[in-house]
Amino acid sequence: MPELPEVETVARDLAGRIIGKTIRDVKLRRADLRQPFPKNLKVLLIGRKIVSVGRRAKYVLIHLDDASVLVLHLGMSGSITVRQAKNYQPQKHDHVLIALDGGNLMVMNDPRRFGLLTVVKSDELKNHKLFRALGMEPLSNKFTGKALHTLLKNKNTNVKAAIMDQSLVVGVGNIYAAESLYLAGILPTRNSRKITIQEAEKLTKSIKNVLCAAIEAGGSTISDYRSATGKSGKFQVKFQVYGRAGEKCLRCGSLVKSIRQNGRSTFYCAVCQS
DNA sequence: CGGCGGTCCTGTCAGC
DNA sequence: TGCTGACAGGACCGCC
Hints:
By secondary structure, the protein is of the alpha+beta class. It contains 6 helices and 10 strands.
């Protein structure tokens, strides 16, 4: 479900609500998501104070006062909400409940269970299995047209799969890949090696623009995504092509097309993109 | 060895 | 109404 803008929104919302709080209790309603939870999870978390909240790629990073990090990934369908603990009845798919001092409860819900929760020592984060192969942050200054052009040259696949490859650039998922390529006027089926430097410059800007705009809108709400404060995102109303197969292209009026690439739906305008 | 298909899971919706 | 199949924001594993 969540791509970079949704994860960023969740991380920011969490920051405003949990920093400075101490974890008082942890309830596990099952033993795993995509992978088993650490066996000593309660020992690792209870009594720890939350010092900051960040994001790397599509991971939420909750930094604790013992130089460890609670690492969360939302998979396709995960959400994290903070609510009053008093009288809270766990809902279906609420897998982890973390009670904080001050009476709040952080709830991780994930119907499809593609998400992940683990704890990593801060100084081991960069070299951790989950993080060491991750590519560039698209909103960083290092993510330039030149950098993307080089990355694309070294790949041999369609440009859409390439920008969704988390070892090249992180955070771009199925929605924002389609939106970025539309904004850049590039067909998603183009081979990554044949993207020119000028196109890479344009695509870089499009990715940054679409991700920033989505963050400003609080992410996109499809189905049941909510931020940590329970709000819906608003960016979905700004989708130019995603989910609009058969509808008119907002720029030229021809019909938006839908194809499958690498097992995922792709949406594009055959007139505006080449 | 890199690219890509299959797979993990539940929920929802279209079509019959 | 109920059944079936396709599909859904991700990413890992194995096979060519």
